[in-house]
Design goal:
Blueprint lengths: L1 H13 L4 H10 L6 H11 L10 H12 L8 H11 L7 H11 L1 H6 L20 E7 L8 E7 L5 E7 L5 H15 L5 E4 L6 H15 L7 E3 L2 H5 L3
Parallel strand pairs: 1-4, 4-5
Antiparallel strand pairs: 1-2, 2-3
């Protein structure tokens, strides 16, 4: 039975069937084996998909040629794709490209290592009080029916409002928080920084309207939207 099974495995493997399909076809013939057992049998029979002969010289030449026009931020995976798909060098494996790049660009690999990819914290600068206000909302308590909205002054870190309400997704709610503080302080900031949430659009329109007389067509620059994580860095 093992001879018949091995012959069937060799026939299916040489005809390009995948290991999963081979197991299913063997099971249909009464030879039920696991994927792990099949891999063991393939190894014993000397059946391998990959050719042991790899054009290392052509791979090295392709890598060196690509390195001349290479971005310093690109790594092994991108180089492997270039060598395979653009240069057409096959068979080519990741280990081959990694070893060659380690010889050719050792400093680049070290610079791109996971330990070197830490985001550099930048210094935050503000010209003075009421120069920049940062606004943001928090939904972590929405399970309890509470939505938090916050605004701070970037220079003094003064909390201008910290409101808990039934929503921080409604534009009129956030606009009311903003308007009340403007009335209380008797003025508005030079710049407001927020994320791209729709709840901040009405605040942006009000902020722009307050600066139209002074800035004219450039009043839109007094309201800036960006990613929330960058805005939270100021908090």
């Amino acid at each position: 039975m093992s001879t018949e099974r091995n012959a069937m495995i060799q026939f299916l493997f040489c005809n390009g069937f995948k290991q999963k399909d081979i197991c299913l076809m063997l099971a249909s013939k009464g030879h039920k084996i696991s994927d792990r057992h099949l891999r063991r049998l393939l190894k014993l029979l000397g059946l391998r998909r990959r050719s042991p002969q790899r054009p290392l010289r052509e791979i090295r030449e392709a890598v060196q040629s690509e390195m001349r026009h290479w971005s310093p931020d690109q790594g092994i995976r991108a180089m492997l794709k270039r060598v395979r798909d653009v240069r057409g060098v096959r068979p080519c494996y990741r280990t081959d490209v990694a070893e060659i790049m380690r010889d050719v660009d050792a400093s680049g690999l070290q610079r791109r290592s996971p330990g070197k990819k830490k985001i550099q914290r930048r210094n935050y600068y503000s010209s003075g009080p009421n120069d920049t206000w940062h606004i943001d909302g928090n939904d972590k308590l929405k399970f309890f029916g509470m939505w938090v909205h916050l605004c701070i002054d970037g220079f003094s870190r003064r909390v201008l409002w910290l409101k808990v309400g039934t929503s921080n997704r409604k534009q009129r709610f956030v606009a009311r928080y903003y308007f009340d503080v403007v009335v209380e302080l008797g003025g508005c900031p030079r710049l407001i920084r927020s994320d791209r949430g729709k709840e901040n659009l009405l605040v942006g329109e009000m902020q722009t309207a307050f600066h139209v007389r002074q800035l004219g067509d450039q009043a839109w620059q007094c309201f800036r939207m960006g990613t929330s994580v960058h805005n939270q860095a100021s908090f």
